[in-house]
Batch of 2 targets.
Target 1
Amino acid sequence: MNPIRPSKERLTSLAKLTAQVFNRSYNPENLRRGTKALRAPLIGEQIKSYYPTSDFSMKSLREAMPQFGFADYTEWYRLTNVVQ
């Protein structure tokens, strides 16, 4: 049996049509375009969920653990540089 093979033009037109139907990019030269990365779902919210949501500041640290005596440099600077 001798199967009939489609021509190269028919195969390229088929590739263009399937790319159009399935909303894919037609890339006959196989260039690296980044469509795979651009189509991937965004993961920003997942990464953001790894970190605590509470605000961390030196003020809250000083209030939570006063026994360590963390210095408040902004208050010290304010008190030492009072205009007289």
Note: The chain has a mean pLDDT of 86.
Target 2
Amino acid sequence: MAEKTVTAKQQEVQRIVDALAKAIAQHRLPPGMRLIEAQIVESLQANRNHVQVALQRLAMQKIVTIEPNRGALVAQPSAQEARDVFAARRAVERAIVEAITPAIMQQHAERIATQMTKERAATSSSDRRAIVRELSEFHCMLGEICGNAVLHDILDNLMVRSSLIVALYQRNDVPSCASDEHQQVLDALAAGQREQAVELMIEHLDELEGQLALHQEQNAEVNLREALAER
């Protein structure tokens, strides 16, 4: 019985996490917006304790910030922080791509093929979170297989921050990433054309940054109940 209760609680907390994360990812809850527990309880017909756990989980994921005397707010990376993160990604991912040889590509051929299959399946679906997850995983995979543990660790941190920035700032009318652009990078690497692969990766990251609405006004009033309504 206890095990079933714990499982039910975990599922309920995850439901709340998913609802809030989806609203943030779709820009229905803008950066800096205060997340009032009572309104979330009402909007999602949830238990207050479960809402508090969900907010703590989102805070651990750096999607939400919890401040003394203010409570929970949607995380608010600045536009300059977003630009800095992508500038850092260009430097780090250039080095990662330069480190990947055709031999490395052959060694990890099965993993690469599996990842691309997952990407195509995700991008052919309407599950935005799955799309973001799989397309982000491509970059993490290259960091892992390049053979430089320091570059890998740096990229992992940058990808966490990038995911938050994309969720908060990306325009809804464009995809977060393109699987065919990933394939072009892989093809160049497999052929030993590392300079071409670097050029393709930099163009890809430039495109991703260009999809961010970094000049979008974030001060408009938003109704939390309406934002959390299922869409």
Note: Residues 26 and 172 are 7 Å apart (CA to CA).
